[in-house]
Amino acid sequence: METTIVEEQICPYCGHSLDVHSTVEGKPEAGDISICFYCGEIIIFSEHLSLLKCNVNELNLDSDVLGEILRIQKKIKNKIANENNN
Ligand SMILES: [Zn+2]
């Protein structure tokens, strides 16, 4: 896991400012998928590395990869839900 500080971007779902991304390998590139740590929504890096809304079901991902993304998303959403209940 690598953490990269990038130019500030805005989550297209919740509007939070994002400037740090953790990647499995290397720096974020166009077409990479990310998950917003504030709202748990899945976002994708555009050609210019801005963040766009993403429907993972339209990406034809390998089922293992899709399963892993959804597993991480669920963990983040559970964490957000727990924080909101405290
Ligand atoms: Zn967000």
Quick description:
The chain has 86 residues and is of the alpha+beta class. 27% of the residues lie in helices and 30% in strands.
Give a verbal description of the structure:
With 86 residues, the chain is of the alpha+beta class. It is built from one helix and five strands. It has one helix spanning 63-85; strands at residues 2-10, 17-23, 33-35, 42-45, 51-53. The strands form two sheets. Strands 3-4-5 form a three-stranded antiparallel sheet. Strands 1-2 form a two-stranded antiparallel ribbon. Strand 4 (42-45) and strand 5 (51-53) form a beta hairpin. The protein binds zinc ion. Zinc ion is lined by residues 11, 13-14, 16, 36, 38-39, 41. Zinc ion binds at residues 11, 13-14, 16, 36, 38-39, 41.
What descriptors fit this protein?
86 residues, three-stranded antiparallel beta sheet, 1 helix, 27% helix
Spatial gap, N to C terminus? 30 Å
Largest sheet: 3 strands, antiparallel
Oligomer: single chain
Q: Please mark out the parts with pLDDT under 50 across 5 or more consecutive residues, or reply none.
A: none
* Gyration radius, in Å: 13 Å
Instruction: Describe the global form.
Output: globular
SSE ordering: EEEEEH
The tally of beta strands, per DSSP, is: 5
Strand order of the largest sheet: 3-4-5
Q: Give average pLDDT, whole number.
A: 89
Work out the helicity level: 25-40%
